[in-house]
TrEMBL record:
This is UDP-N-acetylglucosamine 2-epimerase. It holds the Pfam family Epimerase_2. Belongs to the UDP-N-acetylglucosamine 2-epimerase family. The keyword Transferase does not apply. Residues 26-351 form the UDP-N-acetylglucosamine 2-epimerase domain. It comes from the Bacteria. PANTHER family: UDP-N-ACETYLGLUCOSAMINE 2-EPIMERASE.
């Protein structure tokens, strides 16, 4: 069994780490393709180091660009790699342009596609990820769903064959790396913050960053929060803030902008936060895993269970301050809806049985 894995963006390094580990521990051959979608040290290499990921077999160095350019360049280069490597299957993760390019290249060459984190839907076609997810699911031969909701979403689109509810590999990663994070990360002392004494914020969705009036409204709310806000800024957001000169002129004393942090520091920051404010899919889930209240800056979420359980609320930029101060959070722990931490083993077991 030869698996060709395709990753390229920050969350994919994290989602793939437990599966890559399980594949290699099981003695299976993996050819690891990094598309180069994310390329800064803090958006890419740090995750390979901290999650003990093997060096990519190849880095396509595609870099940034418009959706068509980026996806097209990836498609061209991934096709060459698949033709040269002739894998038994191509494994893709999540919903980025790297995911779609990998799935499309493989499907056109009649190489079976396996999709990890299949069945997620926001039902918002303004999101680039929604196109990537829908198309990737319809191109896939094996679909690994994290939740029952994801399985049901696929059924609504008449996808029922080879659909497996295996749990979430990001939960596996949290289970595998939380102890190491606690032992190794000194991020709280470096930032001189105490547990439960700060809010952790991340923002990177085009919906929140690309419209100056929306970004400015979020920025003003972050500055007005009367508690320490730790804000590791995604490069996309930093660029937009710089274009609007916001990062310089409006930063309040309680808002602390830092560079993106590595995975171990992020786990510690999440686990010890009083609250998380985010538009990230992965960060919403991780807040839930750690039973940290989450305010999501989006009109909808794919992770509906986190909202149904009361641990996550959806908020508009102009309602951030009210949500931070007024919301009542559950007293019961988050329910175990993301599996048992063994998703990767289940994925490898199923993958290696497929003819
Ligand atoms: C991408 C994914 C998104 C995912 C996010 C995770 C798509 C369509 N979007 O969004 O689903 O949630 O990654 O973080 O695939 N940049 C750098 N350095 C880097 C990477 C990016 O400076 O290492 C800057 C560039 O200016 C680039 C911009 O960030 O144009 C956006 O990067 P891109 O990968 O296109 O999209 P993301 O917003 O990161
Ligand atoms: N993350 C990180 N450092 C940061 C911000 C995020 O390690 O400064 C991790 C986070 O813990 C989660 C993943 O990156 O595992 C989420 O990625 P991102 O928010 O970029 O993308 P999304 O999940 O929205 O696709």
């Amino acid at each position: 069994m030869r698996v060709l894995t395709i990753v390229g963006a920050r969350p994919q390094f994290i989602k793939s780490a437990p599966v890559t580990r399980a594949l290699r521990n099981g003695g299976y051959e993996e050819f690891l393709v990094h598309t180069g979608q994310h390329y800064d040290y803090g958006m890419s290499q740090v995750f390979f180091e901290q999650l003990h990921l093997p060096r990519p077999s190849i880095n396509l160095d595609i870099g940034s660009g418009s959706h068509g350019y980026q996806t097209g360049q990836m498609l061209i280069e991934i096709e060459k790699v698949i033709l040269a490597q002739r894998p038994d299957c191509v494994l893709v993760y999540g919903d980025t342009n790297s995911t779609l390019a990998g799935a499309l290249a493989a499907a056109k060459l009649h190489v079976p596609v396996a999709h990890v984190e299949a069945g997620l839907r926001s039902f918002n076609r303004q999101m680039p990820e929604e196109h990537n997810r829908v198309l990737t699911d319809h191109l896939s031969d094996i679909l690994f769903c994290p939740t029952k909701t994801a399985v049901d979403n696929l059924l609504q689109e008449a996808i029922a064959k080879n659909v497996h509810q295996v749990g979430d590999t990001m939960y596996d990663a949290v289970m595998q790396f939380s102890d190491t994070a606690r032992a190794k990360s000194d991020i709280l002392s470096t930032l001189k913050i105490k547990p439960q004494d700060y809010i952790l914020a991340t923002i990177h969705r085009p919906y929140n960053t690309d419209d100056p009036s929306v970004l400015s409204s979020i920025w003003q709310a972050l500055c007005a929060i009367d508690q320490t806000v730790i804000f590791p800024v995604h490069p996309r957001t930093r660029r937009k803030l710089e274009m609007m000169d916001l990062h310089v002129h409006l930063a309040g004393a309680s808002l602390r902008i830092i560079e993106p942090v590595g995975y171990l520091d992020m786990l510690v920051l999440e686990q010890n936060a009083r609250m998380v404010l985010t538009d990230s899919g992965g960060v919403q889930k991780e807040a839930f895993f750690f039973a940290v209240p989450c305010i999501t800056l989006r009109p909808e979420t794919e992770w509906v269970e986190t909202v149904e359980s009361g641990w996550n609320i959806l908020t508009r930029p102009d309602a951030i301050l009210q949500a931070v101060s007024d919301h009542a959070w559950p007293i019961t722990p988050p329910p175990p809806i993301f599996g048992d931490g063994n998703s990767a083993a289940k994925i490898v077991n199923i993958l290696t049985k497929v003819e």
